[in-house]
Each structure stands twice: as C-alpha cells, then as structure tokens.
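Pilot study result, target chain (300 residues):
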Amino acid sequence: MTADNIDTSSSTWKSVFRNDLFQGKVAIVTGGGQGIGKEISLELASLGATVVIASRDVAKCEEAAREMNALIAGSGVGRVVAGPSTNIRKEEDIQNLVAHVVEKYGALDMLVNNSGGQFIQESAEISRRGFSAVIQTNLEGTFLMCREAYNQYMRDNGGTIVNITIGNRNGMPGMMHSAAARSGVENMTASLCTEWIESKVRINCVRPGIIFTDSGFKNYGPAGEYFIKKMNKSLPARRLGSPQEVSSAVTWLLSEGASYVTGAILCVDGGGSYVGLPLIEIEDKANLPVYGTLPARAKL
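Predicted structure:
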C-alpha cells in the first residue's frame, strides 16, 4: 500500500450523524487545521458546532477554516474559526486560547486534544532535549489544555473532552518517547474522569492506529513510505485507517449518545494494537540466553 492508492479527499466526506447534533455548541480542536484534527473539526462544524482550531500558525488555520466552511456550506449552522496563535508547550498561550474562546463565544462545551508531535528514532539515540520536547507537547500540553478548559468553564458548566493518543498497547519501538507520553495521557484521563465527574465533565481517549494523512506522512520524508510498507504487513485489517474513521469515534464520544461513557479508551486501529510494531529490524543472530534446557526445534 502506498500513498498513491489511498483516497483522502474531503469532497467525498459525509457524517453518519444528524445535522443538528451539536447545534449551538462550542468546541476547541487543537491542531485542527490539518490531518486528523481537520477531519474532526469539519465533522463537528457540519453538525452545528462553532469549532475553534488552534495552532502556532494562525494563517494556516485561517486558510483551513475557509476550506472547511466552503465544504459544509448549507449543511447547518456550524462553522470553523481560527483561534489565536497557540503553542501548547506554553502555558500562557493555552490560558489565552481558552479565555479567548469563553469570552468571544460564551462557552466551551467540547475540547479535542489532537495536537502532538514525534519523530522516528531508536531510543538509545534520543537526546534528553528531544525526549523532553515530545513529553511537553504530547503529555504536558494535553494536561494544560484539560486543566484550563475545566477551570475556566467546565467546572461550573460541564463539558466533554476527548484526548487523541496513539496505538501503543505493545509499545512503539522507534517512537518510545511518544508512546510514553501518550500512555501518560491515557492514565491521566482515567484519573480526571473520576475527579471531574461531579462537575458533569466526561473525558475519554481515542487511540488511533496507523492513520494515513498526507500532512502526517510528509513530515517523515522517505521514512514515511517505508513505514507504510512495514506496518501494512503486520496489521490484521491489512490497510491503514482513514482520518474520517477517527473523527467518527471522536464525534460519538462527544455526543449525548455516549453520556454514560467516561474514562474509556476507544481503539480505532483495525486490530493493530494486538500485534507488534515492526519498525526495528531484529537480526537473526539476536537471542536471549536460556535457563534450563530447550529442544533445538524450539529455536526459530
């Protein structure tokens, strides 16, 4: 499977949910101008929500908002708007984003923590600075977004939060730093769902498997195509996932239909979390020493 035979066109997109599902609701989607975040933003807006997308590049968010609004024109009363420049590694930026949304739109009913970043590298070669940068973005940034949404609005008004993690049930050789951060997000979510339930706040995770997006795989350069070929052989579904499949899961968790669901991890991975992630080659001569006796036929 290559990027050439995967249809990622938003022009064929259509939500499975009713048009007024989120009418009058206000949402923030971090990283909502591209990839999975863009599909989530598009779907929420098509269902009536005012969706504020945020990243460091306001111009790109504004352009993405124009594209999405053109696609959903006439489908409902929702819209996508660009928020202020936000680096989720900066506490002040996050505080300003949430304050801006609450002040301008009068609410913050839904939060989707989609922003994140990582790079492919063997663990022994990751610098402390590189490890810290991924932890700050994927774990600390997600926590700060949740905290500010809760403190500035949801504590008194309720709300729903979905954190996007990553398929790491069996670890992620080659991206250990990201797997560690995302596992932290999942455990944080389990803690917050109990702490905040009295405020009528639900918080869940969606754990995508390997999802194809043009923007995502371009970031990895030639390694992206190699990644696809390696992963496709090991996935039970024998294909990568689409951003729309992740968006559908997020939409359900944000909806009233999931009103009894909190602290959950919803996997969207085609069964991929139950198999290994063969990003690192294991040489034939590699083995662990044996304690006791082992028949020759037991060796691979």
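One observation from the pilot: The radius of gyration is 20 Å. A full batch analysis is planned for the follow-on phase.
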